[in-house]
TrEMBL record:
Keywords, sorted A to Z: Cell membrane, Membrane, Transmembrane, Transmembrane helix, Transport
Annotated source species: Kitasatospora acidiphila
Molecular-function GO terms, alphabetical: transmembrane transporter activity
GO CC annotation: plasma membrane
Compartments, record wording: Cell membrane
Principal cellular location given in the protein's record: membrane
Any single Pfam family the record assigns to this protein: MFS_1
Record protein name field: MFS transporter
Annotated region (Disordered), positions in chain: 1-33
Topology versus the membrane: Multi-pass membrane protein
Domain Major facilitator superfamily (MFS) profile: 50-431
């Protein structure tokens, strides 16, 4: 694929001519040459700025709001510790976590319908308000049944807004710039998550109420930002907008695309649910998992803005396959790591895969979607991610405990490489349909 980032030579010539000395050709030439040599990165900087410009106000509302919201995303990472402080028995915790995963399957489906019928604004505000309310219920829940209900609502509310946000991002750009837009969206999530990880542990030591209060506050702040700055959506009146998910289920290419999405996201989910078990079983402290989180966040935050632009020269399907393979390899290498630095090196491998794959399948889904079904298509992608997360949570931990760590890591490698192969095939089909 031809790169769109070729520097414009006229920019350099113009800069040189403004500083040359009239009547002295040799001096002018020397100054021109010096200017060109002394600022070799200027064209690249201008190109980078140009690639991030022109997305429009609604896009930046979503990007900034997502970062703010993710900074407060502290309840879920510390949920197990919170349940322990409530003296919930270990054999009861899976009921709570299972409810969280089930909610994550429901939220994107409902969010997609709301987006296509009433607009992104309604879907996103509803999701943020529901999340804040469910966090309050979770904090004051008097018994296990209420905790399960609260986490079910939290899982649904926390994903309800995503199709609406995805529709805004999809509408901000076309073609190759669309994948850059989705890459920036993913980057904003990681920026907020990195900050949350840095301060969440400190706040938890001073009481879990601080985590719940900050998380709910950032949800309400995001809702207020969307309600006041995002244009009001129009209600869909077309046949497809009233037809539920039939338009999605009839799109065989989209359904095929969801297969590598689920496979890849399931392997990535092991970094959240099974990596801590491996670190623990090697007799290492929880701070090693904190180190892994810091390495991942630092790499993604530092590399992704540049990579999302530079990687547009490569075909999406091939790049997605490479990303899936890197994630699978990095996760599988967890099985041979035994100390903090070795675990950190495995994180580097799968983090590079995360950077390479950022925004790829989301932009493909957006390209496949009819104009009045963007929300439902994004909802389908969100459902796939939720299914993968649910599977990683339940099957990953069960396989680790029952079959052993070696079986889990070898299976992760096999599934990840199979997903890479499917990504390559599906990517070619998407390219043929959308080109």
């Amino acid at each position: 694929m031809t790169s769109t980032l070729t520097p414009r030579p006229t920019s350099t010539i113009s800069t040189a001519s403004t500083v040359s000395t009239p009547g002295t050709a040799s001096t002018s030439s020397a100054v021109s040459t010096a200017s060109t040599v002394s600022t070799p990165s200027a064209p690249a900087v201008h190109a980078l700025r140009a690639r991030f410009a022109g997305f429009g106000g609604p896009f930046w509302v979503v990007i900034s709001g997502t970062a703010v919201n993710r900074i407060g995303n502290m309840v879920l990472p510390f949920l197990v510790f919170y349940l322990g402080s409530r003296h919930i028995a270990t054999d009861r915790i899976p009921f709570v976590l299972g409810a969280l995963g089930a909610g994550g399957l429901c939220g994107p489906v409902l969010g997609g319908l709301l987006t296509d019928r009433f607009g992104s604004r309604v879907a996103m505000v509803s999701g943020m308000l529901a999340t804040a309310a469910s966090q309050g219920l979770l904090f004051v829940a008097p018994d296990l049944a209420t905790l399960v209900l609260a986490t079910l609502a939290l899982g649904a509310g926390g994903t309800l807004h995503m199709p609406g946000a995805g529709a805004v991002v999809a509408g901000a750009a076309q073609g190759e710039r669309r994948r850059v837009a989705f890459g920036l969206f993913h980057w904003s999530i990681n920026v907020g998550t990195a900050v949350a990880g840095a301060i969440g542990g400190f706040l938890a030591e001073h009481g879990y109420g601080l985590l719940f209060a900050l998380d709910a506050a950032t949800c309400l702040a995001y809702a207020l930002l969307v309600a006041t700055r995002l244009p009001r959506g129009t209600k869909r009146s077309g046949q497809q907008a009233r037809g539920g998910y039939g338009v999605v289920l009839r799109d065989r290419l989209l359904l095929a695309l969801l297969a590598p999405v689920v496979m890849g996201e399931a392997i990535y989910g092991l970094t959240e649910f099974s990596l801590p078990l491996a670190i623990r079983d090697h007799g290492l402290p929880p701070t090693v998992f904190g180190l892994a989180a810091v390495v991942n966040a630092a790499l993604v935050v530092a590399l992704q803005p540049i990579a999302s632009v530079w990687l547009t020269r490569f075909d999406r399907g091939r790049l997605w396959a490479v990303a899936c393979a890197l994630i699978a390899l990095g996760v599988a290498l967890t099985g041979v790591a035994s100390n903090a630095w070795e675990f950190a090196l495995t994180v580097v491998v799968w983090s590079l895969g995360e950077v390479a794959g950022s925004g790829l399948y989301a932009s493909m889904v957006a390209d496949l979607a009819p104009e009045d079904a963007v929300g439902r298509y994004q909802g389908a992608a969100g459902w796939g991610r939720g299914l993968a997360r649910f599977g990683s949570l339940l099957l990953g931990s069960a396989a680790y405990a029952v079959l052993g760590a070696a079986v889990l890591w070898w299976t992760a490698l096999a599934v990840g490489l199979a997903g890479a192969g499917l990504a390559l095939l599906v990517g070619a089909k998407v390219r043929a349909r959308t080109s």
